[in-house]
Amino acid sequence: MAKVVIKSEKIMPYGGIYFAIGQFKRHFAGEIDRHLGLRCRLVGYQYSEIVMAMMCNFLCGGDRTEDLYNCREGIGYAPGLGLCSPDTVLRGIAELTEADTVYSSASGGTYRFNTAERLNGLLVRLAVRSGQLVPGREYDLDFDHEFGKAEKWDAKWTYKGMRGYSPGIAILTDVITGDEVIVGVENRDGNTPVKFRQQDTLLRIIFNLAEQGIRIRYARMDCGSYSREVVRLLLEHCRHILIRAEMSAALREELERPQVWRRAEVGGIATETTSVPFTAFGHDAPNCRLVVQRTPKPRGPEQDIFEFDRYTYRAILTNNNQSSERSVIERYNKRGAKERDIDQLNNDFGWHYLPKSEMGQNAAFMLLSAIIFNFYRWLLKDKALRGFGVNTRTRLKAFLNRFIAVPAKWTTSGRQRILNLYTHNRQYQAVFTQYG
């Protein structure tokens, strides 16, 4: 058996975090404090330091807020650097919480929304400040609702048979680079109908973007956004819309009439497409069409002989009358890739482990996590990190293993503080030298 010797030297196992801290302070911290204001005048932690502590926790592999204890001491070995405690993080989240808005439906139900307008405004401002969004340019907007499990006292039963919340999430995609940015998060009761006052949520998100000079080229949404109010709003503020239409008796009747079906291959699947005029919303949706796709159902022993039941139909509402049907379908199908972003928020950035007991405070936590997610995506664009085998699609665990997890120790020499990294990878020298 090998001899084991315990050394009491102050060695930090996550030395790469100091690079992330430097970039966060240089490009994000100042805007956070300008927008949110100073939390304390003399002694204490500012809001930017609270967000930085959450960022360090996630990038060092923490899932829950209390995991901050695991990396706090090691990061504090750096001269003049200290992280706040998990309790301070939770107090800061509570201080940033805005009151819920309660709406009543026509049927007499009441539903709570937490719009968190100040943090949503910060989310967009930071994206512009960091260059992730460029004023005057067009982006594609994807919006969807996530049903997240949350065993909290105020969580309501969702239609998925669990207690939780139903936040609405907006993501912008750069039409040139394909980079994605979270630009809006609004928390809601889990039992809130998807369409209930959705136009109000979208209007707030669009207003935040317009205030920063951001324009929307395509708005892509599923059938949860197929309503007269939402369509009218999007046609007013977006160049094009792509919304999954719901099957109705009128549409079914229209498709049963003779149509010109064109063969096409979408995603490697043979299908047929056609277009029909859209008139369901009258003057609220002028010059729109439904792009319809039909795919044969697998034949079973009791296959129905009727033509309509032999196919699976899907329809997309759009005001783009120039593009081909196949192009419209393929562009709409790209919204499925946004599920990866929500998956990362859930599994890498703490959404599965909401720390507070109230919906509003959890909304503030989710928005701060979204800010950190955007910072992480921005960090991955740094060309200096290419030597570590990471790119803008790298998951957090891989980034932790390839870059963050390197032993480090602070020493003093010639009145200078020196960061010693214990590794054979010379790429670290280039990264830390370039940014000081």
In short:
The protein is α+β, with helices and mostly antiparallel strands and 436 residues long. It has helices at residues 17-36, 47-59, 68-75, 86-95, 117-129, 198-211, 228-237, 249-256, 325-333, 339-347, 359-380, 396-404, 427-435, and strands spanning 101-104, 110-114, 138-145, 148-149, 156-157, 163-165, 168-174, 180-188, 215-221, 238-245, 262-266, 269-277, 289-296, 311-318, 408-413, 416-421.
Task: Summarize this structure as a short list of keywords or feature phrases.
22% strand; 11-stranded mixed sheet; alpha+beta; 2 domains; 16 strands; 436 residues; 3-stranded antiparallel sheet; Transposase Inhibitor Protein From Tn5, Chain A, domain 1; 13 helices
Q: In the CATH hierarchy, what is the architecture of the largest domain at level 2? A: Alpha-Beta Complex
Number of helices: 13
Percent helix among the residues?
A: 25-40%
The CATH class of the largest domain is identified as: Alpha Beta
SSE order, one letter for each helix or strand: HHHHEEHEEEEEEHEHEHEEEEHHHHEEH
Strand percent estimate = 15-25%
How many β-strands, per DSSP? Answer: 16
Q: Whole-number radius of gyration?
A: 25 Å
The largest sheet has its strands arranged as 1-2-8-7-3-9-10-14-13-12-11
Compute the separation of the termini in Å. Answer: 43 Å
User: Which regions contain 5 or more consecutive residues with pLDDT less than 50?
Assistant: none
Task: Provide the residue-averaged pLDDT.
Answer: 91
- When the domains are counted, the total is 2
- CATH fold label of the largest domain: Transposase Inhibitor Protein From Tn5, Chain A, domain 1
Which structural class should the secondary elements be placed in?
alpha+beta
